């Protein structure tokens, strides 16, 4: 869903903001063999992992650079790139409009940008998981306290328009997994169980949840995984726009 119909054909130099460990970089290089990608990342550990990973990818050789940088103050000249890609990045920054404004500055006229972002209010699982949802909202509240935005996906249209992008289009993309796709549902539930439980220690230290809530969530998630009629539902937003 993230990489469907991306408008990067005939593009040459793409900026990836928040390139992390290079997972998206590899996919983009594989799908668009004419691209050269510059990834900007702020965390040293992730930069090291990305460089190590991409060094072992044959089609990445000579086609990428991962640099350390602040997305709100990009150290590139105006018009340096002809495409940009952001995925699960703006949820973590204090000023997403500033980041998007910088992205617009370094894009040449006619360049496309694609942003995929979370909308965490959409999570639902069946059987009903009240403690998991309480934990999830505590998770989201904590992210807001730390300067992020777990609901930024819904705001992408306003943000892109406000900083001067044009032809802004947003699309709701949904994982709705039930008995029609049991294998994919099982994989998604395992992934989200790991994701949710990974956040428990930090939320416990911050006194945002109790041990009781975490234990109940663990029990609920196991019940969902066992249920023959379980449902997983989550939506994110993908926005596309251009510089003119």
Concise structural overview:
With 244 residues, this protein is α/β, with parallel strands linked by helices. It contains 8 helices and 8 strands; from the N terminus they run βαβαββαββααβαααβ.
Secondary-structure blueprint of this entry?
Layout: E1 13-17, H1 23-31, E2 36-41, H2 44-55, E3 64-68, E4 83-87, H3 96-106, E5 112-118, E6 124-126, H4 130-145, H5 156-162, E7 166-177, H6 182-198, H7 200-205, H8 211-226, E8 231-242
Parallel strand pairs: 1-2, 1-4, 2-3, 4-5
Antiparallel strand pairs: 5-8, 6-8, 7-8
Helix pairs in contact: 4-8, 6-8
Structural commentary:
The chain is of the alpha/beta class and 244 residues long. It has a single domain (70-242), classed as Vaccinia Virus protein VP39 (Rossmann fold), CATH 3.40.50.150. It is built from 8 helices and 8 strands, in the order βαβαββαββααβαααβ. Strands 1, 2, 3, 4, 5, 6, 7 and 8 form an 8-stranded mixed sheet that branches. β2 (36-41), α2 (44-55) and β3 (64-68) form a beta-alpha-beta unit. It starts with 12 loop residues before the first strand and ends with a strand. The mean pLDDT is 97.
Class per helix and strand makeup:
alpha/beta
What is the N-to-C succession of helices and strands?
EHEHEEHEEHHEHHHE
Distance between the termini: 27 Å
Instruction: Name the CATH superfamily assignment.
Output: Vaccinia Virus protein VP39
- Classify the beta-strand content into a percent band: 15-25%
Name the CATH class. Alpha Beta
The figure for the number of domains is: 1
Biggest sheet character: 8 strands, mixed
